[in-house]
Amino acid sequence: MRRFACLLLSLFPLLATGAPDADRQLAASLLAVAEKRIPEALDAVDQLTREHPNFRLAQLVKGDLLLARAQPLQTLGNAQGPRNAELEQLRDEARQRVRALTDPLPHDKVPAYLLNLDEGYRHALVVDASRSRLYVYANRNGTPIRVADFYVTIGKAGAGKEREGDNRTPVGIYAVSGFKSPRELTDFYGGGAFTLTYPNEWDTRLGRSGHGIWIHGSPSNTYSRTPRASEGCVVLANDDLARLGQYIEAGKTPVIIARQVEWVALDELGARRNDLAAAIEQWRQDWESRDVERLMRHYGSDFRAGSLPRAAFAAGKQKANAGKTWIRVGLDRLSLMLYPERPDFAMVSFVQNYQSNNLSDRTVKRQFWSRENGRWTIIHETTL
Fold this sequence. Notes:
Layout: H1 2-11, H2 21-34, H3 38-51, H4 56-67, H5 85-102, E1 109-111, E2 114-116, E3 123-128, E4 133-140, E5 143-151, E6 154-155, E7 172-180, E8 193-196, H6 201-205, E9 214-216, E10 228-230, E11 234-235, H7 238-245, E12 254-258, E13 263-265, H8 266-288, H9 292-296, E14 299-305, E15 308-309, H10 310-321, E16 327-339, E17 342-356, E18 360-372, E19 375-383
Parallel strand pairs: 3-12, 6-10, 9-11, 14-19
Antiparallel strand pairs: 1-13, 2-16, 3-4, 4-5, 7-8, 7-12, 8-9, 14-15, 16-17, 17-18, 18-19
């Protein structure tokens, strides 16, 4: 019994005050085991399984506690015989839930992707598939500050969506486009769904397919989920989805999904931001120069403006500049985000204020920049 108690406590240390009630109840049960208060431990886990009868992980621990009266247990789910795939999934869930507590993120590091968020973005969401975790970052004067995190499930086949029906969660940068209430959906989606902008322009250019990638809740009779159980969506418990909703603004909140998040110190984040920002500023100045040859050096050989190839884009600039005596370009609400797993690839968005002697307009643009041989160039541009 003592060995089993130590084993369980190593898997489920007492949770922090802010943890979900169900996790606290489970931790209380395991603490009672460690202190040889077995009746209390069973009472605690009994209450948990009554309140959350489909919390399979709690049911597994309850079964182990009952079995521990008769024989020593060596591992969570003391099953004998061939490997049980469902049991392994429950163990994975246990490991991921506990990892958030036993392997905390360094407080002095942030995701490498949030280089600069315009003040219009109050929060950003970052999903780390390797940790089954969704992190919420507040935008404090351009500095990302972690304010919440949640256990999540991703696609059955993991991360890296390429085609419709592959049961993978996409990797990339998206935004919350809207919210579907439970009234619009079946109970499969629980407390509702935040829709995402997958596929984005870059996904489309690469030929990735699929649709309906959402952040949504769980069926009302389900509490826990294995780390990989969805058809590609990011899935939370319903109470967590409700908490997450307070940080989301439809049409604004960015969502970055990575197989494994890269964490960097704030000074490193600042250096990467300044590097990309300097390239953007030089592009802006060269546009104002009215020298099309100088301007086009900032566009890669495979650049496209929507579906327009580089050569046609350059010809259009040459024709337009023929009638210009001066050009002024202002960039407002500039946001810079590095792409997951590609430190030399970035998504840039801004409001462009263009003025010249014969034309003035204001447009919203999104660009994808790539750095090759130490130099940033634009490879895709879309007017939104």
